[in-house]
Amino acid sequence: MAAQRVAVIGAGASGLCALKCCLDEGLEPTCFERSGDIGGLWRFEEQPEEGRASIYRSVIINTSKEMMCFSDFPIPDDFPNYMHHSKIMEYFRMYARRFDLLRHVRFGTSVCRVSKRPDFAATGRWEVVTESEGKQESAVFDAVLVCTGHHTDAHLPLHAFPGLESFEGWYLHSRDYKSPWAFTGKQVVVVGTGNSGIDIAVELSHTAKQVFLSTKRGAWVMHRVAEGGYPFDFSYLSRFIQLLQSLLPLSVSNFVLERKLNARFDHALYGLQPQHRVLSQHATINDDLPNCIISGRVRVKPIIQEFTETSAIFEDGTREDIDAVVFATGYSFSFPFLEDCVKVVENQASLYKFMFPVNLEKPTLAFIGYVQPLGAIMPISELQCRWATHIFKGLQELPPASTMLADIAQTKEKMAKR
């Protein structure tokens, strides 16, 4: 019997381990990557590429190497605990060479359409139409793994900022930010206190005349370096701590961690106190922000009420002269190549365990890496790929549709409460 053919869409972190897991299970994968190289989010380019997040030159990962590596390929001992994007790419290339993955990747190939075959109800097969060098071709696959990631389309809500059309300075999304030199001597406002926003604000503070950090609801700021100099996630995400968390009410866990974070610097005193609890949303990770705030290089501001030609007026009524704005307002994702199989509404897709559509006659379509964990995505993507390949081979089965729908509803309810 011929091996099942699996289409893998995207050759980033999730796509690479999808290839590896398919090969481990005796499947025949073909990966379609629209760009000319692997790495996805982590590959730095001077010019942003369509459909892919674009990182800045100084990016360092927020999870330690011990917590982000694939299970069967440890990161070398001489690599730093928190790696620069160039080191992450080096690791991915080593991984791809070790398991001979690149021969299964078709670079410079965009996926135009993924649609059910006429006999899908019986076979679960898909027709995948791709385009390369202006030519389209079609192929049939037994299963599809979507590994295109969360960070595809820049979210830039310009309508939420009255007066921006008359602003005489310049503005950009964080995906277009590469280095601080163009902002030398300028007054800059950074909108957003996620990881990108705070990283950029801190970096700009070394060259800009003044940086203002505008936040809508504050942020809990964690740090990479924990007690004794060990990585924070390596110290905190232990089996003992996780057992303790499972036994304690969530409110107690929140209280303990918030007290720990406020012992480092008082978030209310620094203008960053959020209304949400620390374990309710993604924390922001940065070691340098408190020093930038206490030295005045970064000034925390509330949300921007409106722009004038030369300034920003904030919700508290203060006005600051501004030369440039960096919108670190995140990303949205979509699946334009899928024909009505999965709909994305308000940046969410109804997927069982964030992986499987419920309404398919055959479970031969899975999404990898669309969980938003508190830690690294790589180990989770690996486990997702193992599960998906087992489902494709019939070694495991999904529960009934009613059970999956109930699980999706329960997950959404939990997320809404947080």
How would you portray this structure in words?
The protein is α/β, with parallel strands linked by helices. It has helices spanning 13-24, 65-68, 85-98, 120-123, 195-204, 232-236, 239-247, 250-264, 289-294, 378-393, 401-417, and strands at 5-9, 28-33, 105-107, 110-116, 126-132, 135-141, 143-146, 153-154, 170-173, 187-191, 210-214, 221-222, 284-285, 298-301, 304-307, 311-314, 319-321, 324-327, 331-332, 344-345, 348-349, 365-367. The strands form 7 sheets. It has a 5-stranded parallel β-sheet, with helices on one face. Strands 9-18-10-11-14 form a 5-stranded parallel β-sheet. A hairpin with a 3-residue loop joins β15 and β16. The longest helix has 17 residues, at 401-417. The protein is globular. It starts with a strand and ends with a helix.
Secondary structure topology:
Layout: E1 5-9, H1 13-24, E2 28-33, H2 65-68, H3 85-98, E3 105-107, E4 110-116, H4 120-123, E5 126-132, E6 135-141, E7 143-146, E8 153-154, E9 170-173, E10 187-191, H5 195-204, E11 210-214, E12 221-222, H6 232-236, H7 239-247, H8 250-264, E13 284-285, H9 289-294, E14 298-301, E15 304-307, E16 311-314, E17 319-321, E18 324-327, E19 331-332, E20 344-345, E21 348-349, E22 365-367, H10 378-393, H11 401-417
Parallel strand pairs: 1-2, 1-7, 2-3, 7-22, 9-18, 10-11, 10-18, 11-14, 12-13
Antiparallel strand pairs: 4-5, 5-6, 8-19, 15-16, 16-17, 20-21
Helix pairs in contact: 1-10
